[in-house]
Amino acid sequence: MNTLQAYAHNFFFNVYPYLCLAVFLMGSLARFDRDQYTWKSDSSQMLRAGTLRWGSNLFHIGILFLLMGHTVGLLTPHWLYEPFISPERKQVVAVVAGGIAGVVCFIGLTLLLHRRLSDPRIRLTSHRTDLAILIILWVQLTIGLITLPYSFGHEDASVMLALSDWAQRIVTFQPDAAGLVPLAWPYKSHLVLGMTIFLLLPFSRLVHVWSGFASLAYVFRPYQLVRSRRLNLPGGHNTPPARH
Q: I need a surface site. Which of 3, 95, 176, 206 has the fewest CB within 10 A?
């Protein structure tokens, strides 16, 4: 690795993650504070519902499974799951489950992208950022699916352990990307593009994912008590308040 490659590697895997995380958090907060009316997904269901129903359901099911799987798979310490499952078997489970979810998500996203590009009315009402983020997600899913054959070629789970070690060092503020140097280009491209999606999220329609997480608070929200109020008038006559 020459000097330029070493510099780029250090930037993208030791510095870029924190830059993306800072923009992701601060940008989301700033948008919520300044432009709350844009905090939505801009549904086009009224223009064409059929393809949207299939595409949206498949995409959301797949992307939620992938997000949860990547988070748990990368950030779970090795010593925590080692008594129950070996790294090699864990990699097989991750590749099979992630592959199925990736294909489901890819089909749904392809339907959504085709819908926006093929329907003139939807294309005219779509923001450029809508199309851009769908294309970026489609490319990201494509690269993710390309990594599957590479993963089957590493039966010792060395790549999975290297990725997990890098991710856990990032979240514990001990960045060290040395273990990523020998990885194939699909892995590195997948990581960089994935971080870029978080960088762009506050400026796109994807910001509405925060609302999905926030809605979970309603499960633990106490019931709202509503009591009727009556006016006590002279003579013991109670009259309900006037309606406004």
A: 3
The response to whether 70 counts as a known ligand-binding position is yes
Confidence (pTM) = 0.79
CA distances (Å), 40 to each of 9, 160, 203, in order? Answer: 36, 35, 12
Question: Is 190 labeled as ligand-binding?
Answer: yes
Q: What is the DSSP letter of 160?
A: H
Return the sign of the alpha-carbon dihedral for residues 67, 68, 69, 75. positive
pLDDT at 22: 96
Closest Cα to residue 183, out of 147, 152, 156, 155? 147
- Quick one: pLDDT at residue 32? 81
Fold category of 3-239 in CATH: Fumarate Reductase Cytochrome B subunit (1.20.950)
User: 78 labelled as ligand-binding?
Assistant: no
Furthest-apart CA atoms within the chain: distance in Å:
96
Q: How far is CA 175 from CA 16, 22, 25, 232, 233, in A?
A: 11, 16, 19, 70, 73
Q: What is the pLDDT of residue 153?
A: 82
Residues of the chain with pLDDT under 50: 45-48, 244
Distances (CA, A) of 195 to 150, 151, 228: 21, 21, 53
- pLDDT at site 186: 95
